[in-house]
Amino acid sequence: MKVLLLVSFVSTLLITFCTGNPSEDYVSKCKYPSGCFQPRDQISKCISTTRPYAYDSATKTCRIHPRVGCGQNTCNYFSSLLECRQKCPAI
C-alpha cells in the first residue's frame, strides 16, 4: 500500500511539474506573428513522444525541433507543421 501511495504521489508531482499554467507575461509574448521569433528552448524537462515544430527565422520555414519536452517557456513550438505554417507564414 505504501508503494502504491508513493508511486501515485511521484506521478502526480511529475505531471504537475511538466504541465504548469503559463503566466500572464508568457501569454502576452505569444501573440502571433511576433511569437514566431521567440527563441527555441534547448533544455527539456520531460521526454516528449511528439515531433514538435518551431519556426526558424533564418530560413523562414517551420522545422522539426526534437529537443522539446514539457515545460518549454517559449511560444515558438507547434504540435504540427500545419499549425506552425498557419501561425508563422514565411515572414
Automatic annotation (TrEMBL):
Keywords: Signal. Gene3D superfamilies: Pancreatic trypsin inhibitor Kunitz domain. Residues 1-20 form the signal peptide. It comes from Rhipicephalus appendiculatus (Brown ear tick). The keyword Lyase does not apply. One of its GO terms (molecular function) is serine-type endopeptidase inhibitor activity. Pfam families: Kunitz_BPTI. Coiled coil: none annotated. The keyword Phosphoprotein does not apply. It comes from the Eukaryota. This is BPTI/Kunitz inhibitor domain-containing protein. Residues 36-88 form the BPTI/Kunitz inhibitor domain. InterPro entries: Kunitz_BPTI, Kunitz_BPTI_sf.
